[in-house]
Design goal:
With about 260 residues, the protein is of the alpha/beta class. The protein is about 35% helix and about 15% strand. It has two domains: about 200 residues, Glycogen Phosphorylase B (Rossmann fold, 3-Layer(aba) Sandwich); about 50 residues, no CATH class. The chain has nine helices and ten strands. α2 packs parallel to α3. The N and C termini lie far apart (about 55 Å).
């Protein structure tokens, strides 16, 4: 099968800093290992490093049957900025123009966010009859309101109407929904305006097993962490792996740990 993956913001196999692959990188690698051909549509801009990989559209083959299609869009310096929204808009518009010139895939999977790319992908799938799957990873634009003071949110909401409409259309046009959690899946289904089907599935965030095995049973690493942070050897250690952002209620966890 020829499978399109549409996702930005993740490390790519060609990046020089050697970061591990994330959700779509691991998926692309697994699909190729099973004999499928993959086209991974993404941006030339590296979100983690805030740097352009190329100053123009670029394509390169990795793992034999995986083609990275990188679309150029303007850079941005901060995550919360008009420049980032402009980047999303330009990227989606240029993807819409480029994808129709390529051999059609058998199935298309697009990450949400980006809202603009999810909409462009779902519309492409609807027009061509290609099964498209929207993968709900973050609850945009709902989460944007979390950075706005509560008393100002009613003034900001009208500015987000287009984004909510785009999310609804993306979810309704898709053949099925995937999500990182049950909560995210139910959110997507509400926007799709339908009940859950057997094609709607939850796929939690994963991790490369080989990378985990490197550290399993490594007591020296545990000892090093305890020394670095002056943690008593007989104390219980709870680890959080993720972004310390507004999406998680970590204050409650910390308060509970103090009891």
């Amino acid at each position: 099968m020829l499978i399109w993956l549409v996702a930005v913001g993740e490390p790519l196999p060609i990046d020089p800093d050697g970061r591990r692959l994330y959700r779509y990188g691991m998926l692309a690698k697994a699909l190729v290992a099973r004999g499928h051909s993959v086209v991974w549509w993404t941006s030339t801009f590296s979100h983690p490093r805030k740097q352009q990989r190329y100053a123009h559209d670029a394509a390169t083959v990795v793992w034999d049957n995986c083609l990275l299609r990188m679309i150029y869009a303007p850079a941005y310096r901060t995550n919360t900025s008009v420049a980032r929204l402009w980047h999303h808009f330009v990227l989606a518009r240029r993807f819409s123009r480029a994808c129709v010139k390529e051999p059609r895939p058998d199935v298309l999977l697009c990450s949400l966010p980006l809202i603009e790319l999810a909409l462009a992908s779902a519309e492409y799938g609807s027009k061509t009859g290609i099964p498209s799957v929207v993968d709900v990873r973050d609850l945009w634009p709902d989460q944007w309101l979390l950075v706005v003071r509560p008393e100002l949110r009613r003034f900001v909401k009208p500015l987000l109407f287009w984004y909510w409409a785009a999310v609804r259309k993306s979810c309704r046009l898709s053949w099925s929904l995937a999500a990182v959690s049950e909560t995210s899946l139910q959110w997507g289904l509400r926007h799709a305006g339908r009940e859950r089907s057997e094609l709607d599935r939850v796929f939690p965030l994963g991790y490369d097993e080989a990378s985990m095995l490197e550290f399993s049973g490594d007591d020296s690493l545990d000892d090093e962490i305890r020394r670095r942070f002056s943690i008593p050897s007989d104390s219980l250690v709870l680890c959080f792996s993720g972004t310390m952002g507004l999406s998680y209620d970590l204050d409650t966890v910390i308060d509970a740990a103090r009891l």
